[in-house]
Design a protein that fits this description.
The complex is a heterodimer. Chain A is of the alpha/beta class. Chain A has nine helices and ten strands. Chain A has a single domain, classed as P-loop containing nucleotide triphosphate hydrolases (Rossmann fold, 3-Layer(aba) Sandwich). By secondary structure, chain B is mainly alpha-helical. The longest helix of chain B has about 35 residues. Classes of the chains: A alpha/beta, B mainly alpha.
Chain lengths: ~280, ~250
């Protein structure tokens, strides 16, 4: 039976380690069973994510990284092992924000209502000036003139900016992003990396970001969890020791950046051998 | 003029009427059975109002209005319930699959047995006809709401009533409108058939009576009125659909 406690274990753990820890997993495994066939999504995952950290989960396609993120989000359940999520404020149930790959916005709501609708349903937002919050976050992603547009009238990059604004506006304890930029072109992706880092540094949220893009992981993350495929296991957890604030054009010239990218490439290369896929 | 879409919109019915007109006038068609459209329109506009055309139209509209309204409302409510609740779906679906293919006119005698031969039985049979079409399309619409919107609602803990009213309902709305459009056409079919027997007013009654008394122009007048009503209904529903689903990219 998967255990999903929100408070108890994390509280004890934080005292013991003197660092505020937000997510802790122990022997976390998930197996999909369909008739006779069993597919292991991920197996025996042990890691922790600290509060305020930008944590990337990097792995080849089919390594179960999206499944892991969905488990943290509560959209799937693990088959065995332990998953603890410690909310920032233990007196209230933790809230989670999530950005999906694409199409996460409700097509029938304007940009304003896409953000507002989630705020209206957020129990922590009662008695708050919702319009002010909506405006603040639309400004933050630079879409003020598009407030009353429908999603279909926006480009893919703009839509993901709204998704990001929406996830931060809810003031979640934990932000989850599932390859949010995967369907965007290179230039847009670079611009959104900068925007995301900027907002993340202002709002100080724990952020778990799933990607298969090595440079994206190195540019964004404090730490990168490298997953191996079939079954998905923790191959390594790498600290990214690069200064912040980060700016892509300067960062990519740093030898330290190139070293980290090469290191991760080495780690992932054996996972990406043609016959291992 | 050729690029104006309204030109092409009117082109096909107008050319059919012209063909008909010339065929009748040239004697190709027997004017006793196929009176010229101009003669039918003349009859429709100047003669039939004096013979109770408005009574017939309003009687039919009354039956369609209440039957359609009741059928569509219950179809949407039950369709959404079935789409969202597995138990309800499992309970109702076999009944729907069993009853839907039965021609609604075939059960008119049964309905008249239950509700009498008055207005009620006609309203009920229209309601039943609309109900199944709207139900099936609504169910399909609820099923077609992409999984990602369920995920978003779960992650952000959307309250149940908000989920139904602001996620599922708008998501299903395009399919619901397909059902509403099919149902209004079907309502016309049913009401006319129901009025053929056991009615003392209505467009179906007008057509049947005219046939029996060989008032061919009056019969055609009734048919033309049905066509006009069908056109008006679909224009109204298209307009409503455009107002209620402004998020759909109509340019595509």
């Amino acid at each position: 039976m998967p255990v999903r406690q929100l408070k108890s274990w994390g509280a004890i753990h934080s005292k013991r380690h003197k660092i505020s820890m937000q997510i802790f997993t122990a022997h976390l495994s998930k197996t999909f069973s369909r008739k006779e066939q069993r597919t292991v999504a991920y197996e025996n995952l042990n890691f922790k994510i600290e509060q305020g950290e930008f944590f990337c989960i990097l792995g080849p396609s089919g390594c179960g990284k999206t499944s892991l993120l969905r488990t943290i989000a509560g959209l799937e359940t693990a088959t065995s092992g332990e998953l603890n999520i410690q909310p920032l404020n233990a007196s209230k149930p933790g809230s989670i924000g999530m950005v999906f790959q694409e199409h996460g916005l409700f097509p029938w709501m304007t940009i304003r209502n896409n953000i507002r609708f989630l705020l209206e349903n957020n129990i922590h937002m009662v008695n708050r000036d919702l319009d002010a919050i909506v405006n603040e976050f639309i400004d933050l992603v630079g879409l003020t003139t598009f407030t009353d547009y429908f999603p279909y009238q926006l480009s893919g990059g703009m839509r993901q900016r709204v998704s990001i604004a929406r996830s931060f506006a809810n003031e979640p304890d934990l932000l989850l992003m599932d390859e949010p930029f995967v369907f965007l072109d290179y230039q847009t992706r670079c611009a959104l990396h900068g925007l995301l880092l900027d907002i993340w540094q202002r709002k100080k949220k724990t952020l778990v970001f799933v990607t298969h893009d090595i440079e994206e992981a190195v540019f964004l993350a404090d730490r990168v969890l490298v997953m191996s495929a079939h079954p998905g296991t923790v191959k390594s957890i790498i600290d990214i020791n690069l200064p912040r604030p980060r700016e892509f054009l300067t960062l990519r010239k740093l030898p330290a950046y190139q070293d980290q990218v090469s290191e991760l490439m080495e780690l992932l290369r054996e996972e990406c051998e043609p016959f291992n896929l | 003029m050729l690029k104006n879409r309204y030109f092409w919109l009117f082109m096909s019915p107008v050319s059919i009427l012209l063909l008909w007109e010339t065929s009748t006038r040239s004697g190709l068609l027997d004017a006793r059975f196929f009176p010229a459209p101009s003669a039918i329109f003349y009859y429709l506009i100047f003669t039939s109002p004096g013979e109770g055309l408005w009574t017939d139209i309003s009687a039919s509209l009354y039956r369609i209005f209440w039957g359609y309204l009741a059928g569509c409302a219950s179809g949407i409510v039950l369709g959404v319930s079935m789409g969202l609740n597995h138990t309800v779906r499992m309970m109702i679906y076999p009944l729907v699959a069993l009853l839907y293919p039965i021609p609604k006119i075939a059960i008119l005698p049964l309905i008249m047995l239950i509700f009498g031969i008055g207005e009620m039985s006609k309203i009920v049979v229209v309601a039943i006809g609309s109900f199944f079409l709207v139900l099936i399309n609504t169910l399909h619409g609820v099923d077609s709401v992409a999984k990602i919107y369920h995920d978003v609602a779960r992650v952000y803990r959307i309250k149940k009533h908000n989920f139904v009213l602001r996620v599922i309902l708008p998501g299903a709305l395009p399919a619901i409108f397909t059902g509403l459009k099919l149902a209004i056409g079907y309502s016309l079919v049913i009401v006319v058939a129901a009025e053929f027997s056991g009615a003392d007013a209505g467009i179906g009654y007008l057509i049947w009576q005219s046939w029996e008394t060989f008032s061919i122009k009056a019969m055609y007048a009734g048919i033309f009125v049905i066509g006009a009503l069908g056109l008006a209904f679909s224009l109204i529903l298209n307009f409503l659909e455009r107002c209620l689903t402004p998020w759909r990219d109509t340019d595509q």
